[in-house]
Amino acid sequence: RPRSHTVTTTSSSFTANLSASSSTLAYDREFLRTLPGLLMVAEIILGLLVWTLIAGTEYFLYPAFGWVMFVAVFYWVLTVFFLIIYMTMTYTRIPQVPWTTVGLCFNGSAFVLYLIAAIVDASSVTKELDSHNYNSWAASSFFAFVVTSCYAGNTYFSFISWRSRTLQ
């Protein structure tokens, strides 16, 4: 008994859709030329300095520096994440998220917690603790205040953006 072999081929538009969707991934070079973009880059670079200066010491012996490390690393990672979102214009693909409110909450919380961490960092730096770590802790304290001012600036710009969106 002979068997019949039927081969059915179908064409899928999946590859066409995949190539079309991947080519629409935008890259916004102009964001880095804006003041909020420059502040975000400064937050990343200076925030990296804050936590690497502390991480190179025996900070785990002093709970205050553990708090500073938590804030510095947490907001450093989130700032890198938000920079990627803004650079790739991902926020335009997810219009359900109120990005101006998210930006305001993120920058506002970063400002407040970084201010607390910078004050804790500065008040914990004494020569009596360990003279070997003194310079690193003092430098991290300085940079923590600089990063705090960057987040304050971005909080201001986020507030202006949020306010203009809510008035419309």
Automatic annotation (TrEMBL):
GO cellular component: membrane
Principal subcellular localization: membrane
UniProt-recorded Gene Ontology molecular function terms: structural constituent of myelin sheath
Compartment(s) of residence: Membrane
GO biological process: myelination
UniProt membrane topology term: Multi-pass membrane protein
Ranges where the MARVEL domain occurs: 31-163
Protein keywords: Membrane, Transmembrane, Transmembrane helix
Membrane spanning residue stretches: 35-54, 60-85, 97-117, 137-159
Coiled coil residues, start to end: none
Protein name: CKLF8 protein
